[in-house]
Write a structure and sequence with these properties.
The protein has 298 residues and is α/β, with parallel strands linked by helices. It has 11 helices and 6 strands. It has a 6-stranded mixed beta sheet, with helices on both faces. Strand 5 (249-253) and strand 6 form a beta hairpin.
Length: 298
Amino acid sequence: MAVSTNAPASPGEGRGPTARRIVLGAHLRRLRERAGVTRSDAAYSIRGSDSKMSRLEAGKVGFKPRDVADLLTLYGVGEGPERDEAVAMAAESNETGWWARYHDVVPAWFEDFVGLEAAASRISSYELLFVPGLLQTEEYARVIVSGGRPEQVPATERDAVEKRLEVRLRRQRVLHRPDAPTFRTVIDESVLHRRVGGSRVFDAQIEHLLEMAELPNVVVQILPWDRSGYAAERVFSILRFAEQELPDLVYLEELGGSSYADKHAEVQRYGRAMELLAADALTPDATVRHLATLRADR
């Protein structure tokens, strides 16, 4: 059974280990640099390689409390609050997020995105084909995760489809938390003419978009046909975090994987593209009127 998007969300719910790993990795890197220790020497102290140390400082892998303790000693951090906090964060970084239970249907590259999405303070996205996943209704999402043919899913694959649907719907809780991020999306007008799931499903999706646009932390804009394709030629999402240790990230998803752009110049380029898309799109108020008209004409 799918997870209801109306389920109550508590402050910080879904903030899994992904962001903690990155914050701790950045903290350990600063401590190493402050102590004048090379990355190779730090790696040797924890019986690892230079590449392992690089992954640790980038927050790409979990931390062993023993390794963190050894590194803190090497960096001259003795007993006290700073050491206690770092060791505690190492333990927290190894906790599993709610999405871990879906590892059989959620690829590893997407697990990291779910964790970062849950930790973001601001999410911006540009969509060309479908309504953004965070704003989809259950039936609209079911059509998409089943490859457009929910009624033809083989019996052997139905469980996997339902699990993928649960993941998508549970991700949506992030927008309903007391500390919810701001979500701004620019949706190409072509999405409104792609009747995913047929008239009944799509009409309900338009109604849901109007409801979500009323939330104070959700901004929806429609990009008209005549401005489509000028500022960006592919979909992307930009994640921004409140923690200074977490850089802004651009998330780019492909058919069989994903990539992140985190270099300052790259993030700026996508940021400018998002600004141009928002400027070319209908204003949020005009978008609501456009959607209401579309609903009335159905």
